[in-house]
């Protein structure tokens, strides 16, 4: 016999006050723990096993640094910023995550998807400020010859309204928008960490994230096509950017630069071939081939000595300054303009970082702290925003390379930062002649993984049709409308799918597996034994206000009995019978006897006397759910049919007690509630 434990009631007010007193108290030990937890590097660095770890960390750090430099320069095209800012971002992100991150293997830095989201906001604000989005347009306000131009005046007016100095040109305003956006996104992430809102990431399912990444990859690919073929078209903004861009590309295809087309074709063939060979023979290679770096070096040399910019008008990266620009506080007025845009950026950045951190932690058998990861990513955005950097996140491709090259700790991140620093201080001007089409090729080839998701659609559809639909909807919205709206559409649609699943769940009548005490769906399994005079109904979802009607309809349909209609028939029959008996007439108006009339009003005999409701899949009940069960209990009782509940979990039982389902004193509870279906069936047989 099972009896419920008596739980001691907890005074929630006292518990909250105790937690508040504990959190507000300050002792040396607590302060030390806070600092150690806030800067995890203080915990693991003193225990660093130099002989065992240093070689793997140095190798992976050098490889990532070599990959990072060309990617950083390339992704500046996505962000709509100069390459120097991408290098700043890569440098500071690696240093800060080294200090604050809890994952040993994640590579945090510049990421194509985040760069795209930053670039879309930057382009929009530049357009609103009156700047020309053409990459080769001269800075409007810095040139004195343009001071009287109407375009410059418009720009000056808009900049003044935005709170920026009127002397700030296009490049200055663009990085101002990017740093303001990055700062606000970092603040959001830190606030989410303080209030422990990491659970928000649970609403981004794998299908939503994959669809979002694939849709954004199509947008990135589209944005790079103009660089591949060397045409000058305006950078499209707003909804439907992908379609508008492709229309502009086909309109201007006749103006393609032959030099850029040939260079792009050669670079893509080399990069794809190297990637495919690297994937095929990765078990034999100690570290991946630095193909991007080789391509960039060779392309820069060819462009420089072949004078491709002067002779063939091929677009090049231009001057990249060395050293660091003095730090600057992000402008508050610009933060207000981009506050809404920063929210999806903060969530996407955090989700990608935590999911990759958890993947690495599971693979290498250690734990991470999701809340600390939120702080780490937040400060990877807040602090660098003062140093002309933009938003960062963990990147899957670089993380996989990092783990495959022997990375042991985040010391490898410091090595990568040193490689970037070397480029920042000495080597950056050497990339002046690098063609933009080469950078576009690097970006497009890096999207292979996301674009390959299209090949997985049939397998995904075979596993789960609803998840495939979520992926398609999210991908389509992200590509055809905008990335932010695509993410929102994906989240809303996936939640609607869950609601619909609970609104119209599976229902079944159960039969007994012969010579056992187990019961299963008689539509799914053969040779099940139907218990005489007993119907066993299963409802595979919580019972709440949204699926109440479906519960009742399914129950009436499967049992082939609506108690309300049956009760109405009986009342109608009894009323007519009384009328005829009063008149002393034993026949009806149409000449039928009363016995024959009974067959018309009550068309069939009820074939069961007990209804057993299998509640094993009902995880919770709301007030409507309790009232629904009370309603069927009363309606079936009027027809002399017993209703028994089986396999209820403790929370459902408590809800039924509070709702008065078992009566005031719970006197009949042992005759209404059973711990197994078989017990309920045996009770029904004994009652007969």
TrEMBL record:
Coiled-coil residue windows: none
Keywords for this protein: Cell membrane, Glycoprotein, Membrane, Phosphoprotein, Transmembrane, Transmembrane helix, Transport
Subcellular location: Apical cell membrane
Record's catalysed reaction(s): iodide(in) + chloride(out) = iodide(out) + chloride(in); oxalate(out) + 2 chloride(in) = oxalate(in) + 2 chloride(out); sulfate(out) + 2 chloride(in) = sulfate(in) + 2 chloride(out); nitrate(in) + chloride(out) = nitrate(out) + chloride(in)
SUPFAM superfamilies per the UniProt record, alphabetical: SpoIIaa-like
GO terms of molecular function: secondary active sulfate transmembrane transporter activity
PROSITE patterns in UniProt: SLC26A, STAS
Matches recorded under PANTHER family: SULFATE TRANSPORTER
Name recorded for this polypeptide: Sulfate transporter
Provenance organism: Aramus guarauna (Limpkin)
